[in-house]
Amino acid sequence: MAQTTHPPGTGGHAASGGEGASRRDFLYLATGAVGAIGVASAVWPFIDSMNPAADTLALASIDVDLAPVQEGQAITVTWRGKPVFVRHRTAKEIEEARTVNLGDLRDPAADDTRVKKPEWLIVVGICTHLGCVPLGQKPTDPRGDYDGWFCPCHGSHYDTAGRIRKGPAPANLVVPQYAFTSDTAVRLG
Amino acid sequence: MAQAHAPQFKNPVVKWIDSRLPIFTMLDHEYNQYPMPRNVNYLWAFGAIAGIMLVIMIATGLVLAMQYAANTHIAFESVERIMRDVNYGWLLRYVHANGASMFFIAVYIHMFRGLYYGSYKAPREILWILGVLILLAMMATAFMGYVLPWGQMSFWGATVITNLFSAFPLVGDPIVTWLWGGFSVDNPTLNRFFALHFLLPFVLLGLVVLHTAALHVSGSNNPLGIDAKGPQDTVPFNPYVTVKDGFAVVVFLIFYAAFVFFAPNYLGHPDNYIPANPLVTPAHIVPEWYFLPFYAILRAIPDKLGGVLAMFGAIAVLAALPWLDTSKVRSCKFRPIYRQFFWILAIDALVLGYAGAMPAEGVWLLVARIGTAYYFFHFLILLPLLGKLERPLPLPASICEPVLKGGGRVAAGAHAKPMEKA
Amino acid sequence: MRSLKSAILSAAVALGLAGAAQASEAVHIPKQEWAHSGVFGTIDKASAQRGFQIYKEVCSTCHSAKLVPIRTLAGIGFSEDELKAIAAGYEVQAGPNDAGEMFMRPGIPADRFPSPFPNDNAARAANNGALPPDLSLIAKARVGGEDYLYAFLTGFEENPPEGVTLMPGMNYNKYFPGHQVGMPNILMPDGVTYADGTPATVQQQAHDISAFLTFIAEPHMDARKQMGVKVILFLIVLAGLMYATKRKLWSTLH
Ligand code: HEM
Ligand code: FES
């Protein structure tokens, strides 16, 4: 049954030539272009539906009450599905963070660029190596060689300003966007 | 299939792949050179339209599935979250929900096209049966999809339809319990329906591939119902039919878009915006419109098992159609008597659909019974007899010259406008 | 055959009409004029804002709207600061705190409207056994939509017609299915004092609250219709081009 020969005069694009052909080419082009625009714009809703939804975005900032956190203590809060470390630093810890020679750091950053108030260090608790959560929040946790955090996955050590000091991680713990809304409250995000 | 016309590919990469895995040759053969009878009308576009609908359903279904949660506690809310919070979620959901209806519209027209032009007859029996299987898979998919939003209609539709199986003696109740995964429609049921609703469209896709493979063996039928006799009777699929089908698809999309954007809930039921409540049945439970004729048949029989059998029977007779219709002539154009009965069947289907939406009592019950009786009469008695009794009109010698050989009557009776030849 | 075909067509049309007729059931629900109806209609934001005032002061004493985040109201023209103020006017449960207890805090726009009762049973107990339905989707969950809501809210009758005996605690409503409803007539002339000075007739209130409920049932309705106009215009252009291409192409066949 299957016929594969073209009927005479219907050989695809090789028809009658001249003016008719150019008008047809233009039509093909215009139709193809408009169709392509249609398909391309129809694709966008599918892609965009996978971006954060309105409820996710609306919860993107949260308020944290710092009043109960005593000096030397730390709390972990969840923000955008990630742990955020809030540490109420002691004078000794602040001192340690400030006196480091920046030239010795893998990812140099002065302590005052990483805090808004010296006693409060707020960082995203995710190791910049491959995404584990470093230890050091609980009093019983190991805090590494620099009194900050120690990542058990591949042995990264962070100091009391959350800066990488030793181990495979390439960068300091990330400081999230935040602002103090009062002396004892911050808004993350 | 003849490999005589192996195409020459210019692109070296295409050429390299094709000489090792001839997918391009195959595509060229099946969708580029595939000879299409040149007299097909726009009813032949509904296959392509149904195919596009399947693609749209799978694409939207996939992104919906990324947001939907198949748990009775949060399913309803997760759909509302799609509607309110997910970027373009309302669009994707309305495209999917109305898409089910559009898919059925396309497939029903496609089927009635086949009925009118005798596309189920030899050598296309397997092609037709694959089509009936596609219809069944669609029905199962759509039914389970409608359960997912977990509204009142979802819940009670699922309850009623799964209970159909309890009609079977002995095995009935255990089957229903097994379907439910419990003692009522509940979380396990919702969960498995979601898994199956995700899976079945891909089974459907496989069936569609087989359906087209079978089509490309026998070639497409046409309004005259006679075989193409040579190249003068056909045109290559691409570009002639691709462009024509493309136009039809776009027109269909306009119709579809009108529902999605301006009446997105018209084909749905308000009760499905009420969360499922196992303690309260809504006053009128009706299935989605595309199930109504079958639902009418179910309710027309005053016996539980009988009703269920009749309903499944209504689809089974379709599968047996190639052998029930004894006429050798395919197209209705040359069957003056059958042509009348075709339209009566079409009306019967609409009437059954209407009766299915009405309360099953009084005059509507009677209408449903008459409609059901006629439906089976048409397929089981009329068609076998008519093939023997009817005298068909003379068939034209070929697609190219129907008017010359077939006489004026054919042209006058031609319901479908033959292809214009500007 | 012609006549058969037209019979089919008219049957199809009749089906459509009857489908619509079936929707309105026994009682006829009068249609109202809505700014948001039709292809080009958009929500009347001022009306919906007044409707919100009624929801807040009247409806929400019994009904929840628990699927609706407060931030949704940005869609009827409330500014971010107004939303914060509206949200802060609600107490929402939060917690557990470090002591393991739930506590109340002022709402934020991301919160959903708090429900008047902790659960359905409490709602029933406080309402004579009747459960006030959640209002988040009510405009889409009732046959007749916003027209029904308007009819229902203005359809209470002090005295039931002859021969109807109301059950204890029930009220007569012309449009409620079955006519006996647990909810009392709550819209009174000047029952609210509109912030924008609009005279608060019962009709005005019913109109405004229905507009508000339509909005919260489908906050993206305006966007949907606006996109629809563009999509359909685009498709018509594409269809025209496709048709021209098809004509041109098939004209080369002899
Ligand atoms: C043959 C193709 C399909 C048909 C006929 C179909 C049909 C339906 C129907 C009727 C609904 C209920 C719509 C409503 O009223 O809300 C639905 C919902 C749903 N479908 Fe499909 N569907 C198909 C393919 C798919 C596929 C391939 C997936 C996933 C990959 C999918 C995922 C979903 C999801 C997640 C829902 C629930 C969300 C909602 O209610 O809108 N569907 N489907
Ligand atoms: S993830 Fe922390 S050291 Fe590798």
From TrEMBL, chain B:
Keyword set, alphabetical order: Electron transport, Heme, Iron, Membrane, Metal-binding, Plasmid, Respiratory chain, Transmembrane, Transmembrane helix, Transport
Cofactor or coenzyme needed: heme; heme b
Pfam families tied to this protein: Cytochrom_B_C, Cytochrome_B
Family stated for the protein in its record: Belongs to the cytochrome b family.
Binding-site residues, heme b b566: H110, H211
Bilayer topology: Multi-pass membrane protein
PANTHER family attached to this UniProt entry: CYTOCHROME B
Domain Cytochrome b/b6 C-terminal region profile: 227-397
Subcellular localization: Membrane
GO biological process: respiratory electron transport chain
Manner of cofactor binding, per the entry note: Binds 2 heme groups non-covalently.
Task performed by this protein: Component of the ubiquinol-cytochrome c reductase complex (complex III or cytochrome b-c1 complex), which is a respiratory chain that generates an electrochemical potential coupled to ATP synthesis.
Amino acids binding a ubiquinone: H216
Top-level taxonomy: Bacteria, Pseudomonadati, Pseudomonadota, Alphaproteobacteria, Rhodospirillales
A cellular component annotation (GO) from this entry: respiratory chain complex III
Keyword Iron: yes
Transmembrane segments: 42-70, 90-115, 127-148, 154-181, 193-214, 246-267, 304-324, 336-357, 363-386
Residue ranges annotated for the Cytochrome b/b6 N-terminal region profile domain, each copy included: 13-224
Name of the protein in its database record: Cytochrome b
Natural source organism: Azospirillum brasilense
Subunit-level organization: The main subunits of complex b-c1 are: cytochrome b, cytochrome c1 and the Rieske protein.
GO function terms (MF aspect): metal ion binding; oxidoreductase activity; quinol-cytochrome-c reductase activity
Binding-site positions, heme b b562: H96, H197
